[in-house]
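Supplementary Methods S3. Complex input for the NAI-bound model.
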Amino acid sequence: MSGTKAPLRLAIAGLGTVGAGVLRLLTENRDLIEARAGRAIAVTAVSARDRSRDRGVDLSAYAWHDDMAELAARDDIDVVVELVGGADGPALALARQALGAGKGFVTANKAMIAHHGQELAQAAEEHGAALRFEAAVAGGIPVLKGVREGAAANAIDRVYGILNGTCNYILTAMESTGADFGETLAEAQAKGFAEADPAFDIDGVDAAHKLAILAALSFGAEIDFGSVEIEGIRRVCAADIAQADALGYVVRLIGVADIEQSENGPRLLQRVRPCLVAKDHPLAPIDGPTNAVVAEGNFSGRLLFQGAGAGDGPTASAVVADLIDLARGDTGAPFSVPAAQLVAMPKADSGARESRSYIRFMVADRPGVLAEITAAMRDAGVSIQSLIQEGEANGTEGVLVAMVTHTGPVRCVRDAVAMLEGSESLVDEPLVMPILRS
Ligand SMILES: NC(=O)C1=CN([C@@H]2O[C@H](COP(=O)(O)OP(=O)(O)OC[C@H]3O[C@@H](n4cnc5c(N)ncnc54)[C@H](O)[C@@H]3O)[C@@H](O)[C@H]2O)C=CC1
Ligand SMILES: N[C@@H](CC=O)C(=O)O
Ligand code: NA
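Predicted complex, serialized as structure tokens:
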């Protein structure tokens, strides 16, 4: 079909949700993939933990390796595809080996790229190999391609979005059905969205991995996962979602990265936390495992990328798109610029940022409690826009007091909360959620 070009030969490590999806996609769409890639893309060898597991795909045509480290050593392989996971360990060893041997390397592993992406990009350059990881950020959405290629001419100084399908699935289910957190997490796990350790999802770490990669690529910054401020969704309760709704907002886990200019060069701020999102904001209707990313280019204006952020089909689509690029001979720098040109950007001070905030207190039902809270706000310089006191919140001890502040420094809200620490009026630690600016 494509003439005489030799096929691109793959070894795939990991045949779980994503790996099995990639095998299915390569089989079902073989002809169109070959036509678009200009050559066949053929699997030669595979490795996973359990050879006999029924994955709904026929493995009989592929060489099997119990030890995935052997894949990179095969001389009949052009590209190693890593769909195992884990920041370090065998996945990282395989990446180093494959790139060191001059083979292409395609992965969906955001944990590994967030921690070691720069080293791996450098290794790829040194050995003339290609490294790609579109599936690692926002699953099936071609957001890395969109930023790296489609928006390549723009300076981008803010990128943000919904980067974790599991959290979005949980939050939107809590919103629409009032379902409980644990039950909804189990559903997300059963559908294959959740990470091997779902704490990575609900504690915001997975979104932070993706944000760190997206920020590096968007801003030309060194990857700095360590400086991401992270808060997950464990403490968001049904009453918060109901209060947000009454105020005209929905609750979403949002990753935001931006750069601010200072005398000493650009500073980077990366934060992942549950936020209140106005119902007319483009991120508000994003539900279920869908992800959405907004990138603000200085010529393009606001770009919105939206689609399935997790699951076998969408994630496989991103992996195979990378493989098609490699088959076509695109070996360009994965972070837009060579790894050595990525700029080290110190962390910006999040306390100095201005924001409106939602603050929820669970308080003891007794006189003087509200006065104590509002005094702390006054002393810390926080201006309250609205305050709601509810009866006993469902399934919780105490009375819910929720407030929305006027725009002011984040530090003042932190100071107010710190002043109330240890107060006998509070039956739980306050929850602060910023209101996402449009
Ligand atoms: N599931 C999803 O929706 C998405 C997953 N990802 C990423 O894709 C990667 C794979 O995720 P899933 O397919 O969901 O995981 P999974 O747990 O379903 O599959 C992992 C596979 O790796 C194999 N494996 C584990 N340790 C191994 C070892 N030492 N040697 C050989 N094989 C080994 C397992 O046998 C299994 O086949 C992860 O990095 C994940 O973060 C990225 C985007 C979306
Ligand atoms: N666990 C992740 C899977 C995709 O990256 C998620 O829920 O988004
Ligand atoms: Na993607």
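Residues 134-135, 137-139, 141-144, 318 surround sodium ion (ligand 3) (CB under 6 Å). The longest helix spans residues 110-126.
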